[in-house]
Amino acid sequence: MDLSHYYIDREAKTPLYLQVEEIIGELLLKEPYSLGEKLPNELEISKELSVSRNTVRKAMYGLINKNLIIRKKNRGTFKNIDDSRIRTTLNNWYSFNEDMRK
Asked: Can you give the CATH number for the domain in which 36 is found?
């Protein structure tokens, strides 16, 4: 992951973790990251961007919530194999009251 072309604006109103999240998210979509490829660890990213590890961790949680990356215990962080949004096979959603009426 080449982060040398990216800049964290410490004077911006946008929080640092959101800037880091945006940078990593952009790289995941632009760079030829194959699905399931391992990302650098938080410490490496924090050193390259000159931010704290906690800032990177918070950004990573945002990317997990956006379904762009996944974490595997004792293995690392990876580009999500299925980077599409969460899907469901249910076509119709009913409320509890509607189900009871039926």
From this structure: 1.10.10.10
